[in-house]
Each structure stands twice: as C-alpha cells, then as structure tokens.
Task: inverse folding
C-alpha cells in the first residue's frame, strides 16, 4: 500500500501507470494468497489470467478446458496421475475466482461508489469460493465452503 500511495502521489504518475501498479499488486495478492494455501498456478500464469480478468478482457465465467488447461491434463495423464484433471481445474479456478472477486468488489465499492456492506462482502466471498467444496478446502463437511463461512456458532 505504501508503494501504491507513493506512486499515486508522484507527479509522474499517469492514470494508466496507476492502474498498472494497482493491477500488478492485486495479482501479487492473488498469487501470494494461493501460495500460502498451496493452490493456484505459477506466477506467470497467475499474472496473465488476473490481468485479463481485472481489465475485463475475458469474462469471469470460464471453461475449465482451455488449450493450456488441456495440455496440463495431458501431462498429468502421461505421468499416470488420475487426479491431474481435478488439480489443474482447481488450480485455475483458484486464480480466476480470486481475480473475479477482486473485480467484483472494486466495481461495486470503488467504481459504483457503493457502501462496503456485509452483503457486498458475502457476494464477493461467494464468487471467491464458488464450486469449491469444504473437503477441497480442508474442512470436514459436505456443505459448500461458502455456506460454512456463514453458519452461526450457536446454530
């Protein structure tokens, strides 16, 4: 945040330069978050996907089997790993959904100047975890991960 603030305050920063720095930092946040959880893609692939999603160049609804994805599935298959397809799809989904969640909250909170509400946070989180089961996230439950986040401890 300090780097972004300093860059924005500099007299040399154009709107395009500021956007580039912010998109880069958001992408690094996605990569770092996924790396902590030992999921996601490599930095180059994360950067490529995030930048396209954050700029609105590709729709956030995506097909799991792009050409690159299929190549990875084939590589896993050659190694005899049956879970390869699941791992590739999950890794790509982790990146895409992080970027889509960022895009959503930025669109609503920054561009539309709407309030940061509990509902906005829930919507954003639902985008982040859509299609990911609790078991995939390390939670011992058959309920979806997003649902688990909003269960009252007293329920």
Result:
């Amino acid at each position: 945040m300090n780097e972004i603030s300093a860059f924005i305050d500099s007299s040399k920063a154009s709107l395009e330069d500021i956007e580039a720095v912010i998109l880069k930092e958001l992408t690094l946040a996605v990569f770092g978050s996924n790396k902590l959880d030992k999921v996601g893609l490599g930095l180059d692939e994360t950067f490529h996907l995030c930048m396209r999603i954050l700029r609105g160049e590709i729709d956030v609804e995506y097909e799991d089997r792009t050409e690159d994805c299929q190549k990875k599935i084939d590589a896993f298959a050659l190694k005899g790993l049956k879970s390869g397809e699941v791992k590739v799809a999950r890794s790509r989904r982790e990146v895409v959904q992080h970027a889509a969640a960022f895009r959503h909250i930025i669109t609503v909170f920054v561009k539309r100047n709407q309030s940061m509400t509990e509902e906005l946070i829930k919507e954003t989180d639902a985008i982040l975890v859509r299609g990911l089961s609790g078991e995939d996230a390390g939670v011992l439950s058959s309920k979806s991960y997003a649902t688990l986040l909003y269960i009252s401890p007293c329920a």
Helices lie at 2-9, 15-36, 43-54, 67-78, 84-111, 118-129, 145-149. The chain has one domain: 2-149. The two ends are 38 Å apart (CA to CA).
